[in-house]
Amino acid sequence: MKRLLASLLAVLGVGCTDRPHEYTVKSLADYPSPDVPPLDVLLDDLDNGTLEERRNAAYGLGKHDDTNIAPRLISLLFDSDLYVRVYAIQSLRDLKDARATLPLCELLDEPQPEELILSNVTRALAAIGDARAVPTLIKTLDSTDPFTRTNAAYALGEIGDPSAIPALQLLEHDAVVPMRYHDDGGVSGAPAVNANAMKAIAKIRGEIPKIE
């Protein structure tokens, strides 16, 4: 049976903003939380539902604000379906449960992670704010993809650990402006990598507020 909205997958919704580049599914991201099914229904859908129901369940679990479901969501980070994984990441971001930090870092360490995974993981780590993610995020600053570099810089700024400052300073001359052209003709972008890195340093030093 269908619950929540039907998945409109691969809808891209980011322009030039201060927030990290993140792919989201607009229909589900905007779904009103009071209408999310009960927890037991979502858990049953995860185990016995159709692929669409499993995706919707992974999304809906994060709307219950119950940290007891964090281990179940963490187990979904390595699901065979990309979108189940993405919705689990977004739910863990909503819960802000530090138990997800190291498993999320494992996703960044994968040999060829999906762009969809990278963008959502960095935002989740930024929201959780656990300093254990800092070493992995620093390594991610070396990515050949400018979106990934700027997302990692954003996350480091939100976490606020001073140990990240030297690595962020190395991006001072990285003036690449991330741009991505999509099959539907749309374009997404972000400020230059060095601008994001310098802003992250300012956040760590307490010179500008973090994004809530």
UniProtKB/TrEMBL annotation:
Pfam families according to UniProt: HEAT_2
PROSITE patterns: PROKAR_LIPOPROTEIN
InterPro entries: ARM-like, ARM-type_fold, PBS_lyase_HEAT
GO molecular function, one term: oxidoreductase activity
Coiled coil location: none
Name of this chain's protein: PBS lyase HEAT domain protein repeat-containing protein
Organism of provenance: Rhodopirellula maiorica SM1
